[in-house]
Design brief:
Largest sheet: 8 strands, mixed
Protein name: Acetyltransferase (GNAT) family protein
Organism: Nocardia bhagyanarayanae
Keywords: Transferase
CATH superfamily: Gcn5-related N-acetyltransferase (GNAT)
CATH topology: Aminopeptidase
Number of domains: 1
Number of strands: 11
Radius of gyration: 17 Å
CATH class: Alpha Beta
Helix content: 25-40%
Number of helices: 8
Order of helices and strands: EHHHEEHHEHEHEEHEEEE
Strand content: 15-25%
Shape: globular
Structural class: alpha+beta
Distance between the termini: 27 Å
GO molecular function, one term: acyltransferase activity, transferring groups other than amino-acyl groups
InterPro entries: Acyl_CoA_acyltransferase (IPR016181), GNAT_dom (IPR000182)
Length: about 240
């Protein structure tokens, strides 16, 4: 008998994004959200050479160049990645992670310096999905590990996401070093952004977060900050 086929993790091509991203969002339960309709923009960014173009350490300077080509959306794409998991060339899962545009907009009162720190220092896992028949085999953990490694290389300091309150992600997240926050708990973004800001969970969701590289420990607080909050939005994890 031959050895079992290995799962490979790599950056997704534009064609793979177009075909598989809607499926991943459907599996994650967010197919009818704005994030669920983001696939075409991601595929276009890949074709234009913007996607993940500023993830490498030397590529941080490329953020301004990406913004020149595509504005804020181009800068976000340059700090984003889309990963695909394959076995025997069959796509069995995927991940999308990048800066959250809503957070960047909420930081406008603090100016471009705070927004740039968010672009570089924060990465949100917006979509993580594994085909049902391959769950429980470590595919999701491999996707998260690959994403965290790329984030560390790109000087990201905090990676986060969210899940519905009843989703069982504790084992997956704990194995990858993510802290699963309790209901109503928020993440203090001040150490990363240099301004008073926090990340609040959406109704019925919990946040998950992990320190990347030399980032500060995950600071947790209860919701209700007096400063304009940066809400978590619609990130979901699919158990794997």
């Amino acid at each position: 008998m031959g050895s079992p086929a290995r799962v490979t993790i790599s950056y997704a091509s534009a064609a793979e994004i177009e075909v598989s991203y809607p499926r991943w969002c459907a599996l994650a339960g967010i197919g009818d959200t704005p994030l669920g309709g983001y696939g075409q923009e991601l595929a276009q960014a890949q074709r234009r050479g913007l996607l993940a173009s500023a993830i490498a350490p030397s590529g941080v300077r490329a953020i301004s160049a990406a913004a020149g080509k595509g504005g804020l959306a181009g800068a976000v794409a340059a700090r984003s990645l889309v990963l695909v998991a394959q076995r025997d060339r069959e796509v069995i899962g995927g991940l999308y992670a990048g800066p959250e545009a809503l957070v960047l907009h909420r930081l406008e009162p603090w100016g471009t310096a705070a927004q740039t720190r968010a672009l570089v220092g924060l990465m949100k896992v917006g979509v993580l999905a594994v085909e049902p028949e391959f769950r429980g085999e470590g595919v999701g953990a491999s996707l998260l590990r690959y994403a965290a490694d790329r984030a560390a290389a790109g000087r990201v300091r905090l990676m986060y996401g969210s899940c519905t309150a009843d989703t069982d992600v504790d084992r997956l997240c704990n194995d990858r070093g993510f802290r699963v926050l309790g209901p109503g708990e928020s993440i203090d973004l001040s150490p990363v952004l240099g301004v008073p800001a926090q990340l609040d969970p959406a109704n019925g969701e919990r946040l998950v977060a992990t320190t990347i590289g030399d980032g500060p420990p995950v600071g947790v607080s209860r919701g209700g900050s007096d400063s304009p909050p940066a809400p978590a939005g619609d990130a979901h994890h699919t158990a794997s």
